[in-house]
Amino acid sequence: MRFSLYLGSFALLAHGQTAAPPAAPTSKPAEVREGEGSAPRAAATDYQAQVKVGDLTLAAEFAGHSIPTPEGPLSSEDYVVVEAAFYGAPGATLALSYHDFSLRVNGGKKILNSDSFALVDIKDPEWAPPQQEKSKTSFGGGGQQDSGPPTPPKVPFDVQRKLVLRVEKLSFPEGQRLLPRAGLLFFRYHGKEKGIHSLELIYSGPAGNATLALPNL
User: Fold this and answer.
1) End-to-end CA distance of the chain
2) Does residue 129 belong to any structural domain of this protein?
3) What are the tens digits of pLDDT across the range 124-133?
4) Of 57, 98, 19, which Cα lies nearest the Cα of 180?
5) Would 56 be classed as within a structural domain?
6) What is the percentage of the chain residues whose pLDDT exceeds 70?
7) What angle do CA 211, 164, 100 make, to 5 degrees?
8) Which of 22, 120, 131, 132 is nearest to 66 (CA)?
């Protein structure tokens, strides 16, 4: 018996084979996917305004040029932000898309369509560039003169990428979703917030049609 065991071991070594390692578990812990939207508030009444859309309730709040995130507010010069949420009976679902929303400012005829977060200029008010010495040029007989206002510092790629990921995670969800669901909508508007006197969020999608008057900041 012992001889046969030795012989079997020798055969394995001769063919370069080793015992197979134990199989790794196939299941992985659940991961939070990006682009799932912001956390819906406890109730629709926790937002500035609400409106019924069929059997559902659409709630929303205007954030101006600020982009609210759990880590602190970001900002955009070219876009204004609306946080919107849908509520329904337990188990209710809805096909969601930012394309279903538009915004009317100051009662104008022009309607602003909701854009993808990828088009938004994102800035972090808390970010500051590394300290740099003031640039100077020689002038006259050995004197020095300031070379003019410094060029605005460029945000490093890795810093900007983190900002984009923060906003992507909170942007309005896409596809069929269990309610309640909430997320950020982005509308291109370069004007100042103090020039906004009235706002109407317009929804036209699978749930129906509705217009929601939003209080300004």
Assistant:
1) 87
2) no
3) 988 877 665 4
4) 57
5) yes
6) 73
7) 20
8) 120
**Whole-model pTM?**
0.75
Block residue for tokens 């012992």: 2
Tens digits of per-residue pLDDT, 79-128? Answer: 999 999 999 999 999 999 999 999 999 999 889 999 999 999 999 988 87
And the tokens for 185? 């909508």
Distance in angstroms (rounded) separating the CA atoms of residues 112 and 119 = 14
Kindly give, in sequence order, each residue whose CB lies less than 8 Å from that of residue 191, ignoring residues fewer than 6 positions away.
Answer: 105
Query: What span, in angstroms and rounded, lies between the C-alpha atoms of 33 and 85?
Result: 19
- The count of structural domains within the chain is 1
Amino acid making up residue 189: Y
User: Residue 67 belongs to what H/E stretch?
Assistant: strand 66-67
- 3-state percent helix, strand, coil for the chain, nearest multiple of 5: 20, 35, 45
| DSSP 8-state class, residue 123 | B
CATH number, residue 180: 2.60.40
DSSP string of 44-62? GGGSSEEEEETTEEEEEEE
> Hey, which residues does 54 pair with through a beta bridge?
none
Q: Give the span between the Cα atoms of 42 and 75, in whole angstroms.
A: 25
**Other Cβ atoms closer than 10 A to 160:** 15
DSSP character at residue 139: E
Q: Show the domain range for 40.
A: 34-124+155-217
- Single-letter code of the amino acid located at 144: Q
For residue 175, the cross-strand partners are 96
